[in-house]
Amino acid sequence: MLSIKNLHASVEGKEILKGINLEIKAGEVHAIMGPNGSGKSTLSQVLAGNEAFEVTEGEVTLNGDNLLELETEERAREGIFLAFQYPVEIPGVSNLQFLRTAVNAMRKHKGEPEMNAAEFMKLAREVSKQVDLDPAFLKRGVNEGFSGGEKKRNEIMQALLLQPKLAILDETDSGLDIDALKVVSDGVNALRSADRAILMVTHYQRLLNHIVPDHVHVLAGGKIIKSGGRELALELEERGYGWLGIKDEVAAQ
Amino acid sequence: MKPAPTLSSAFLQPPGQTLPAALLALRQQRGTALADLPLPTRKTENWKYSSKYLKLTDEIAATLPVSGTPAAAAPGYCAVLRNGVLVSDASNLPAVAGIRVRRFSELSDDEAATLAQRLDGTLDRQAVQLAGLNSARFEDGLLITLEPEAVLDQPLFIIHETGAESSGSAFPRIYVDAARHSKATIVEEYTSSGTAVAMTNTVTEFTLGDGASITSVRLAMEEQNVQHLGATGVRLLDNARFESHCVGFGGPLRRHDLQVRLEGPGAECKLNGVVVTQGKQHYDNHTTIEHIAPHCNSEETYRNIAAGESHAVFNGRIHIHQDAQKSNADMNNKNLLLNNGAEIDTKPELEIYADDVKCAHGATIGQLDETSLFYLVSRGIGRRDANVLLTMAFINELVDQIPVEAVKETAQARLSDFFDQTFQEA
Ligand SMILES: Nc1ncnc2c1ncn2[C@@H]1O[C@H](COP(=O)(O)OP(=O)(O)OP(=O)(O)O)[C@@H](O)[C@H]1O
Ligand SMILES: [Mg+2]
């Protein structure tokens, strides 16, 4: 489904990604772990199309098509979804209006009729219950004044509404209490299917108890330096990153 | 040095003579006072950014004729004024106890004499000089009186239609006299018909007695062949409350001076304003709040959005007089520049002579936030829609506060036209 070859990217002239190679097949769940500042969010943002990052080398294809040629909104319509590490607050745009505009943009792209306000409200209420967010949140500004955990649940709610082919979750588990982690994991598991893939960035192996990955990768210094199965996450949790010959920032925290 | 140009005598030709004597005399006196009025230039402080848009050519000196059927209509109570004169057939004036809406021309001599003494009383004529041309030129006017305790059960729409089928100017004049504890919502919509070069020169005044409460909504939406030179003056006595919602769409010249005098203890005003400009349009809001009595509150929130090569101006003056202890004044102006070619000038002007006051002010000029834009498009929302959502977000809070549903809808429809023109489909 997603194929990344020798991807290099920089921001403000500074190279952050230094040759990433990664193959993700439909139905798979991949986890990316790695120290702070290693480029995990950069990779996520580059895939989603953030123009603040410049791709200097390499290629990315989604089901054979060149992803890097597509505008951000086109990538979303082709099925890329990024749950932001830091969801953006947009006062003045109601969550409901935002979600409906997004869902209708997707429906339009697929040639489906747009949903009217009442139809959408019904759907949005159901999905908000699924992520345990009070429907009252729909009326508030996008992420405006949401707590950290509420923002993350709002991201998962968007994923559930938009039904992406490839969901990239950038630390969606960070800052969640135990119950919220369960809610979010259930949401992610609900997305799992044979024709979808999930790429999760996380620092904690506890998430991987809920969402069992097929592959685990270690991203350090802008490169994937080790890949393995589920057991790699356990090993990292026990031993930190030191044994891989890199600076061990996470373990030191 | 050549002398500064003055107002052309063509603008001071005597208008129609159908008013009671006292009003004719007032008009004449105001005309004489304007005879040598120097026209504003770049060096005129309160016209610094806007003088270049003002085109007082002789072409628009004539008073536009009243004839012609107004296109406009409104739900509920409405007073339709075409070129400043009430069109009775098109209007539906309220029949409510204690409330009267009359033309100046139908007042008795005594009533006219009282009105003549009060006209311009809410305004600093020095500051609004040019808009004061209205006082020399009004053909007729509308006097709205609310007796003590009278309550207008529904909003009154005043539709000002500038009929520019030929070149000239309209001089609508409104005076609202709200006695103690009376209450009303008054909507003024400025529209135009025809395509000739024209001007609306309008003045509206409100006097509020003790505990009176007036909500004013003002929509300036004439077409691009019409300049707008307007002033609103408000005087509040003890515990009176004035709330205003102004929505303005840019044009060749758009100027509105809003002056509020808090004269009685406990009086308060809330002034909201939204302005959008595009192309080569202009809009200039000059507001003044005079805190004269102690224990008064003022709250002012204005937002400008300028696209294309347009130019928006906001000047907010707050003057807290020496005796106005315990004043509470809060002014906030935020501006959004959608293109590099657009210009926004904003200036808070605070003059504070009392020591025990709370006065907050803030003004910012910014652009659309890239991070927010990325967040929206990363959900599949098109760039154009994302731009519209974010731009709307900038003013939504104020548009939502418009207390009359029908006006809110009109404003929203116009704003959405504005966005359609500003953000073309990619
Ligand atoms: N807009 C930017 N301008 C300058 N530097 C940036 C920018 N965005 C990211 N960086 C830098 O790129 C490097 C990688 O950042 P990134 O956010 O991808 O790390 P990360 O692996 O997600 O870290 P964390 O675990 O803390 O979330 C960091 O050194 C960061 O400071
Ligand atoms: Mg990160």
UniProtKB/TrEMBL annotation, chain A:
Keyword Chloroplast tagged: no
The keyword DNA repair is annotated on this UniProt entry: no
The record's annotation in Pfam families points to: ABC_tran
Positions of the ABC transporter domain: 2-246
At the top level of its lineage, which domain of life is listed? Bacteria
| Keywords, comma-separated and alphabetical | ATP-binding, Nucleotide-binding
Matches recorded under CDD domains: ABC_FeS_Assembly
One MF term in the entry's GO annotations: ATP binding
**Which protein family is it in?**
Belongs to the ABC transporter superfamily. Ycf16 family.
Mind telling me which PANTHER family this protein's record contains? ABC TRANSPORTER I FAMILY MEMBER 6, CHLOROPLASTIC
Q: What is this protein called?
A: Fe-S cluster assembly ATPase SufC
Lineage from the top down? Bacteria, Pseudomonadati, Pseudomonadota, Gammaproteobacteria, Pseudomonadales
This chain is encoded by the gene named sufC
TrEMBL record, chain B:
UniProt GO BP: iron-sulfur cluster assembly
Task: Report the superkingdom from the record.
Answer: Bacteria
* Pfam families listed in its UniProt record: SUFBD_core
- Which InterPro entries does its entry note? Fe-S_cluster_assembly_SufBD (IPR055346), SUF_FeS_clus_asmbl_SufBD_core (IPR000825), SUF_FeS_clus_asmbl_SufBD_sf (IPR037284), SUF_FeS_clus_asmbl_SufD (IPR011542)
Q: Where is each SUF system FeS cluster assembly SufBD core domain found?
A: 166-394
Signal peptide positions on this chain: none
Q: Which PANTHER family match?
A: PROTEIN ABCI7, CHLOROPLASTIC (PTHR43575)
Q: Report the protein name in the record.
A: Fe-S cluster assembly protein SufD
Q: Could you tell me the gene encoding this protein?
A: sufD
